[in-house]
Amino acid sequence: MRNIVKWFNPFLLLATCAVMVLAGEMPVYRFFNANRGGHLYTISPAERDYIMQNLPHYSYEGIKFAVHKDQAADTTAVYRFFNTRTGIHLYTISEVERDYILANLPHYNYEGIKFYVSGATPQTTPVYRFFNNVRGGHLYTISEVERDTLLQLPQWDYEGVKFHVLDAAGIVYETDSIVGNLRCIPAGRFIQGSPATEPCRDSDEGPQFTHILTRNLAVMETEVTRGMWAELKAVQPTLPNDISRTDVSPTMDHPAQSMHYEACFLFANLLSLQQGFTQCYYADEAFTEPIDLYNYLSSPTIYWDMSANGYRLPTEGEWEYFCRAGTVTPFSVNEPNYDGTTCEGYIPGLLPMLESVAAFVCNYPDMCAVAGSLAANPWNLHDVHGNVFEWCWDWYGDYPEGTQTDYTGPEHGSGGVLEAHVSRGGSWGYFALDCRSATRNNLPFGKPFFGLRLVRSIP
Questions:
Q1: Whole-angstrom Cα distance, residue 214 to residue 220?
Q2: What band does 419 get if pLDDT is binned at 50, 70 and 90?
Q3: Is pLDDT above 70 for 13?
Q4: For residues 167 and 454, what is the distance between their CA atoms, to the nearest angstrom?
Q5: How far is 109 from 410, CA to CA, in rounded Å?
Q6: 340: closest CA among 432, 275, 253?
Q7: For 300-315, b where at least 16 C-beta lie within 10 A, e where not — what string?
Q8: pLDDT (tens digit, 9 = 90+) per residue, 238-284?
Q9: How many Cβ atoms from other residues are within 10 Å of residue 389's Cβ?
Q10: 67 — alpha (psi -120 to 50), left (phi > 0) or beta?
Q11: CATH class of the 186-459 domain in this structure
Q12: Shortest CA distance to 270 belongs to which of 262, 258, 260, 279?
């Protein structure tokens, strides 16, 4: 009698599960099968959650890239098979390979088309496939470093580029009925702060340090507008009135501004409550008293439940990460005219590239721009430079030294009038130097230069 290892395919159970209706470009979640050494990729939140809750031998590795959920003229189907002998999945866009497996390899269960991919373009990234000649399973990666490491290992046979995928950063993760598009920002690492050579920098932007961010984010595409504030108040009447100055934000499509820092917590909690998410902010360390109308101004300390999936302010590091969007220049757009002589300039047309993405003194000296009316950064986020300063979670204080993971700032502010939370991004009426990706602001009060942009932590 032969000893044949057969693996039960738990993914067949998902065929009867309810699945969210999703569309467009989708993030792809990657798991690593620790028992067998292979990867599983899925765009299904239902499948992702099932694996995380029921299959402990699958290690979740996060969002790795993006694909198309639906077929289009320029896309190709990706077929998925499950190897019942090894418990590892195989992916292919080749109809010849698909048909060969169906006809000759009965131990591969065909699971159908799982997503669609585009061809090779400057906007896509190749996916490299390897075959483990000892265990008999496949491994996939978009990382050139991982590819080059595997090429040195004799048990891995390189099978070439099998398809191409999109960068997940900046795709629409979901659309909220009140605050609009949320953009997917996968976890990553970057250098926070500015180099000593950056024109018109402040000393508090150093020392630069490597910041590792482990939370995937869904980030509002724009700042909160007066219209969004009004829509939430209509369904959550305990939200205070919008106190925005109407000479600065004359329409409901302009940013909400002038709110104090504490009002951001209340807005975030009420939005989470309205949309069915777990609230993030509490008046007690046990997370039993959510921040609400009756305690948001009186609570001496506000506690953040980091496990909650509701709306919240970004940390300062998260904010700079999604503002930079992979860039290392003073702004997320290249502005060749920016230097020590123009950083405090106010003449229209002085900094044309920056003026295309930011509302600041050169183009908006007296009021805000309509939210989202200027060009976006590389990750499709509008107004990260200028328009209104955006509140962050962190207290203002000196930067730490050395590599940090999910740094949330000092326990308290730096003292005196500067004992304030950080705001970022610059504002209408402010200079270009204030709109840089690394600029830190520590004004402790609300004025018509201050607004907010919320995020959610996502799997």
A1: 19
A2: low
A3: no
A4: 22
A5: 53
A6: 432
A7: eebbbbeebbbbbbbb
A8: 999 999 999 999 999 999 999 889 999 999 999 999 999 999 999 99
A9: 27
A10: beta
A11: alpha beta
A12: 279
Residue in the structure block whose two tokens are 């909220």 = 176
- Quick: pLDDT tens for 134-175: 988 888 999 999 999 999 999 999 999 999 999 999 999 999
Angstrom distances, CA of residue 254 to CA of 251, 326, 388, 451: 6, 28, 10, 11
Distance CA 109, CA 100 (A): 13
19-74 tens-digit pLDDT = 233 348 999 999 998 888 788 999 999 999 999 999 999 999 999 999 999 998 88
Task: Assess contact for 117 and 140: CB atoms under 8 A.
Answer: no
Print the SS3 string covering the chain.
Answer: CCCCCCCCCHHHHHHHCCCCCCCCEEEEEEEEECCCCEEEEECCHHHHHHHHHHCCCEEEEEEEEEEECCCCCCEEEEEEEEECCCCEEEEECCHHHHHHHHHHCCCEEEEEEEEEEECCCCCEEEEEEEEECCCCCEEEECCHHHHHHHHCCCCEEEEEEEEEEECCCCCEEEEECCCEEEEEECCEEEEECCCCCCCCCCHHHCCCEEEEECCEEEEECCCCEHHHHHHHHHHCCCCCCCCCCCCCCCCCCCECCCCCHHHHHHHHHHHHHHHCCCCCEECCCCCCCECCCCCCCCCCCCEECCCCCCEECCCHHHHHHHHHCCCCCCCCCCCCCCCCCCCCCCCCCCCHHHHCCCECCCCCCCCCCCCCCCCECCCCCECCCECCEEEEEEECCCCCCCCEECCCCCCCCCCHHHCCEEEECCCCCCCHHHHCCCCCECCCCCCCCEECCCEEEEC
Residue pair 338/331 in contact (Cβ under 8 Å)? The answer is yes
Cα separation, 103 vs 122, whole angstroms = 36
Cis peptide leading into 207, omega within 30 of 0?
A: yes
Residue ranges, comma separated, of all CATH 3.90.1580.10 domains in the chain are: 186-459
Cα–Cα distance measured from residue 156 to residue 403, given in angstroms and rounded to the nearest whole number: 33
Confidence of residue 4 (pLDDT cuts 50, 70, 90): very low
Cα separation of 342 and 331, whole Å? 14
Return d(Cα 46, Cα 351) in angstroms, integer. 47
